[in-house]
Amino acid sequence: MRILTGGINHESNSLSPIITGEDDFVVFRGNEIIAKGMSPEYSSTGIIQTLRSHGAEIIPTVLARAVPNGVVSAAFYQKIKNEILDRAREALKEGPIDGICLALHGSMKVQGDLSGKAADEVSAEGDLCTALRGILPGVPFTAALDMHATITPDLLEAVNGFAGYKTAPHTDCLETGEKAAEMLLASLGSGRKLYTAYTGIPMMIAGEKSETAAEPMASLIKGCLSAEKQDGIQAASILLGFPWADSKYNAVTILVTSFEEAKNTADRCARDLALSFWRSRGDFTFRTECYDSRRAMAAAYEAVAKGERPVFVSDSGDNPTAGAAGDATDLLEAIIATMDQADGLPTPLLYSGFYDAEAAAACIRAGENAAQDITLGGRRDTVNGRKIPLRVQVKKTVRDFGPYKSGLALVSYRNLLITITSKHIGFGDEDLLPALGINAGDYCLIAVKLGYLEPCFRRIAARAILASSRGCSHEILENIPYKKVRRPIYPLDPDIDWTP
Ligand SMILES: [Zn+2]
C-alpha cells in the first residue's frame, strides 16, 4: 500500500498587512519530513506514525509550516504546490498510489487570485487538494484539519474524509493526524468508500470564547465523541472558522465522516451537532475577564497590589499566533501612560513582546549591557500601532532561536522588560522566555501578545486578564469592518434566525 502524504499549515489573517513569505516558513521536503519534521505537535507526525505502524509505504511530498501571519505570498504558495504535485506525478510513475492523507490547517489564504478565483472564494487547501485530486482521481483522500479551519466547497469536493482537532488550545494534533490516517486505512482495508456530511452554521466566533475546557465547547465536543461511537461514523468535527480573515465562507462548520452506507447517520449527526452549537450561541463568552487595554492594566495593578502573582494580561488584539502583526501599541501605550505605577511594582513588568525585526537587529548589534535607542511598534500595523521611541538597556540577546531561527532581544525601559523577536514567531512558545534567561513565575505582572493563555502560562497564572486591545486579532468581532463575510451572520446580525 502506497500513501501520499505531506501538508501545508498556515492560518492567514487577511486583516494583517504582512505578506507571509518563504522566510516565514519551515519547509521539509521528501524524506526530510521523516528525518527532521516529526514533532509531536504536528498532525503530520500522527499521520506518518499510523501509516507506518500499519506497514504502508509512505510517499512524503512537502510539509510547509509557518506561524499564523498575514496572507501567504502567491509565488511561495505556487512553488510549494508545484513541488507537491511534481512529487505525486513522479511517485505515480514508480507505481500505483492507493491513497492520500494530508496535514492541513484549513484557513490558509494566498495573496491575489488562485486558479482564476478571488482569494476570498478559495482556500489554499481547497486549491491544492483539487489539483492533487486531478492527478489521483479515484483514490481515497483524507485530511487532518485545525479546529479553526474555514471549509470551502472545493475542499469538500476534493477530499473524502476529515478529522479536526478537538482541543483549543490545540493539544491533540498528533491524535488528529492518527485519526485521519486511520480513516484512510479503514477505507482501504474494507474497500468501503468514505462520505462526509456537512452543515455550515452562519456564525463567527473568536477563539478566546471557544476554549474546549470551558462550556459550551466542552459539551459540544462530548457530542462529537458520542457521534463517533455510532455505527459507521469515523470522525465528527467542529470547525470554528477563523474570524480574522474576511471571506464569504466564514462560518462554523460541522463535518461528520462515515462510510458511505452510514450516510444517513452522518447527515443526522452533522445536523444534530449543528443545532446544539447554534442553540449554545449565546453561551460563548470570554472565559477570562475582558476589558479594554487601560482598564485591563488598572485591574492588573490592583490584583498585584492584593498579592496575586503572577498576573497575566493578554494583549489579545495583537496576537501573532492568530496572525496579527505583533507591533500594535494599544497595550504598550496603556502601560507607558501608567509607567509610574509600573515603576512601583515589586518586580519589573514583563512584556512579551514585540515582533520588530529592525529593533531586534539593532539590539543584537549593540550587544548585551549596551544602551540603545529604538522605536517599537507601528512598522507593520500602521493602523493600530504608533512608532514609540524608547531608550533601552539591552539585557540579553539570542540568535537563531527555535525552528524559525529568530533573533531575540530582552531590553529594559525603566521597570519594564520587553522581549523583541526578529521573526514573526509569536509569544506562546514555552521555550522563548527561558532562552532569554527568564522564568515567568518570578514576575508579578506579565503582559503577553497572546489570546487565551497557552498551558505553560496558564499553569502558573494566579490571574488572567484579557485586554481586548486594538489590532488585527481584535476580539470584538462586531467592531471589525468585514466586507466579504456573507450576511446575515451571528453575532454581527444578532437576531438572525436559522435552522440546519
Ligand atoms: Zn487553530
Radius of gyration: 23 Å
Q: Structural class, judged by helices and strands?
A: alpha/beta
Q: What small molecules does the structure contain? A: zinc ion
Q: Based on CA inertia axes, which overall geometry fits?
A: globular
Q: What summary fits the major beta sheet?
A: 9 strands, mixed
Hey, roughly how much beta strand do the residues contain? 15-25%
Q: Tally of extended strands? A: 18
Unreliable residue stretches: none
Count of separate structural domains: 2
Helix content estimate:
25-40%
Number of separate helices: 14
How confident is the prediction overall: mean pLDDT?
A: 96
Distance between the termini: 39 Å
In spatial order, strands of the major sheet run 10-18-11-17-12-16-15-14-13
Describe this structure in words.
By secondary structure, the chain is of the alpha/beta class. The chain has 2 domains: 282 residues, no CATH class; 186 residues, no CATH class. It has a 9-stranded mixed sheet with strand order 10-18-11-17-12-16-15-14-13. It has a 6-stranded mixed sheet with strand order 2-3-1-4-5-6, sandwiched between helices. A 3-stranded antiparallel sheet has the order 7-9-8, sandwiched between helices. The radius of gyration is 23 Å and the shape is globular. The two termini are 39 Å apart. The mean pLDDT is 96. It binds zinc ion. Zinc ion binds next to loops.
